[in-house]
Amino acid sequence: MRALDGFAHTQPNALWRGSPRESGGRREAFATVRESALEGESLVSVDATTARRILIVRLSSLGDVVHALPLLDAVRRARPDAHLGWLVEEATASLLEGHPQLDRLFVAPRREVLALARAGRWAAAGGRLRSLLGELRAERFELSLDAQSNLRSGLLARASGASRRVGFAPPFSKEHAHWLLTDPVSAPAGKQLKVERNLELLRPLGIEPGPARAHVPVSERARKFAEEVLCAPGPWVALHPGVSGMGALKQWPPERFAQVARQLEASYGARVLVTWGPGEEVLAQRVARATDGSARVAPATVSLQELAALYQGCAAVAGSDTGPVHLAAALGVPTVALFGPKDPAIYAPWQAQTGRAARVIWKDVHCSPCGKRRCGNIICMPAIGVEEVVRALGESLEEAREGTRLAGSLGQPA
Fold first, then answer.
1. Each residue of 368-394: pLDDT tens digit?
2. What is the β-pairing status of strands 350-351 and 356-357?
3. How many Å apart are CA 68 and CA 153, to the nearest integer?
C-alpha cells in the first residue's frame, strides 16, 4: 500500500505530538513505524469471520479506552478461544493490567520515546519502537480492531503484521487513516454513543453488535487501598473537579464543587472525597479547602485501578466530561456528568448499570455543542447551577439508600 509514502511527507508530526523542539524526534519515530508498516503486513489472506488472533488498538485517552472495553467484552464472548491483545499507551495501561479477558497487553512507549527525542537520542527512540513492533509481530495477529482510527493507531496496527485491519471510515477516521485499513466500517451517520459506535467494528467479524457490557478490572491490592481510604461510615460521594490539559473548556468552576460538597454534607450527611489525576492535586486541595471541612482530598493513586476502587466504594460520583467520570460510570457507580462544549448524545458516559448514557447535566446554550479548544466567552459550563448538581447527586444517594433498605428487608427471615 504505497499510500504510506505520502504520509511521510505530509503528516510526520501526527505520530506522537510534543513540543516543536521535538519535531526531529517525531520524524525519526514516524519513519521507524512507517518503515515497519511497509514491511510488516502479512501476505496471507485471513477470513475475518474466523480470525482467532486479534489485536485491539485504542492508545488513549482514559475515557476513550473505557469506551472500548465493551468491544473487548463482545469479542471475548463471541470467540472465547481467541487470543486477544490490546495496544495502549502508558498513561492508561494500568487500567488494563491483569484484565481477565486479555491474553496480552502491549504498552506503546509514548513518554519514553518523547523523552529520548528531547535528549536527542533518536537511535534509542527508534530502537524502542522497533522492540515494541517486534513483540507485536511475534504474536502473529491476524486481525486488528482500530477503535482510534487516526494515523498513529493505523500505522501501528499495520506494523503489527495483522493482514486484516478493521477501523472507521470517514468521517470517524482522522488523518486519512482509513487508507491503512482493509475493512473500513461506515458507522451510522446519526448521533450515537461512542460505546455503541465502537461496537460497529464487530460487523466485519460476523459479530452482530448487541447490548454493551464491560469488565473493569480492580485488583485486590487496589480494593484494600480503597477500603483504608473510605473506612469511615458513608455514604461517600466523589467529586472530580479536574479536566485534561486539552479540555480546559469543560471545567466547571472549582468553587462550585466546594459548594456542592458543603450542601451534600448538610442535606444528606455525605462524606465527600475530591479525586485528582496528574497535575490536578493543587486544584483538588483548593476545592477541599473551600469546603470548610466538608470534603477531603483523596490520597495519590499509583494506578487507575486504585482510582476505580475508590469510585466503587462511593455511592455517587460527579465531575465534568473527563476520563475519571467515564470510568466511574463504566463501573456501574451512579454518575452525574457536567457537560458544556461536547454533545452528550455522543460523548456522555456509558452507565454499566443501565446500559445507557449516564445522568448528564447540559445546558443547551446557543453555541453548544462546539468543537472549540479555546473560547473567549465560556457560557456553557457556568450555566450549570450548584443546586441542580446537588439535586442529581441527592437523588442518587436516595436511590442507593432505598436499594440498601430493600436488600436488608429481603434478607430478613419471614
1. 999 888 898 999 999 999 999 999 999
2. antiparallel
3. 14
Establish if 192 belongs to a structural domain: yes
Domain boundary among 205, 228, 252: 205
Burial of 386 (0-12, 13-18, 19+ CB in 10 A): middle
Preceding amide of 171 cis, omega within 30: yes
- Residue 270 sits in a domain whose CATH number is 3.40.50.2000
What is the pTM (predicted TM-score) of this model? 0.89
* 201 phi, psi to nearest 5 deg: -70, -10
Largest CA distance in the chain: 76
Residue with cell 529520548: 116
Look at strands 295-297 and 271-274 and give their pairing.
Answer: parallel
Query: Residue 201: which of 176, 163, 167, 174 has the closest Cα?
Result: 167
Helix residue ranges per DSSP H, 247-349: 254-268, 281-289, 304-312, 323-330, 344-347
